[in-house]
Write a structure and sequence with these properties.
Blueprint (H helix, E strand, L loop, with lengths): L1 E4 L2 E4 L3 H19 L6 H8 L3 H8 L2 H13 L5 H7 L11 H13 L2 H13 L8 H5 L1 H9 L13 H4 L1 H19 L6 H12 L10
Antiparallel strand pairs: 1-2
Helix pairs in contact: 1-2, 1-4, 1-7, 2-3, 6-12, 7-11, 11-12
Protein name: AcrR family transcriptional regulator
Pfam family, one: TetR_N
Keywords: DNA-binding, Repressor, Transcription, Transcription regulation
Length: about 210
């Protein structure tokens, strides 16, 4: 049975389906307006729920933002996804890091709204009161810890992955963030082609030939 709520019908759904619907609606609204301009009521209206019904799932506004990151943005593009892809450079016994980064760029190029969501939240999280402030503060450390266990194959002249690659990984992530911002503008660039230009600088020939 459906009930009317703010012009939309409220339909009973199972908890998993409803949670996914809430997270996707919130992600859409936040990517368009920013989290400060999106209220719980806005999201409730978007999915056809009552205000109190939505609170049952999210607890509060901070819980809503956390749900968006955990349930919507974080999915896909992982190293494990790359190793299962069968793409060149994805050998689990010796994956190539530049090849993984190209995989990640292609993944992000297919989800423009999620990249916009990430960029909006990244800026908003500069405020110490933002619920994701600490997440973004430790982001590069977390990324490094995620990448560290994999047996990346890099040129012997470069050194040992765990000893020398941390600054290079950080620069790659910072540059990717910047390129994505240019890509999101009204006069967009080609995200993948732009990344390849950076790759040629960060992983130059002939040193990285055979390792990218």
């Amino acid at each position: 049975m459906a009930e009317s709520t703010g012009g939309k019908k409220r339909v009973r759904k199972n908890p998993e389906e409803r949670r996914r619907e809430i997270a996707e609606a919130a992600a859409k609204l936040i990517s368009e307006r920013g989290s400060n301009a999106v209220s719980i009521r806005d999201v409730a209206d978007e999915v056809g729920m009552s205000h109190s019904g939505l609170l049952h799932y999210i607890g509060d506004k901070n819980g809503l933002i956390r749900m968006v990151i955990d349930d919507v943005y974080a999915g896909g593009g992982t190293v494990d996804d790359f190793l299962r892809s069968g793409l060149p450079g994805s050998d689990p016994e010796g994956p190539l890091f530049p090849a993984y980064l190209r995989f990640l760029v292609r993944h992000n190029a297919q989800r423009r709204s999620m990249v916009r969501l990430f960029s909006v939240l990244s800026v908003e999280s500069l405020s110490v009161s933002h619920p994701l402030h600490e997440d973004f503060e430790r982001r590069f450390d977390d990324i490094w810890q995620d990448y560290l266990p994999f047996p990346w194959r890099i040129p012997p002249q470069v050194g040992d992955w765990g000893t020398v690659m941390r600054p290079r990984v950080r620069l790659c992530m910072e540059t990717m963030d910047g390129i994505q911002l240019r890509w999101l503008r009204d006069s967009p660039i080609d995200l993948y082609d732009e990344w390849l230009q950076f790759e040629s600088i960060m992983f130059p020939s002939p040193l990285w030939d055979g390792y990218k």
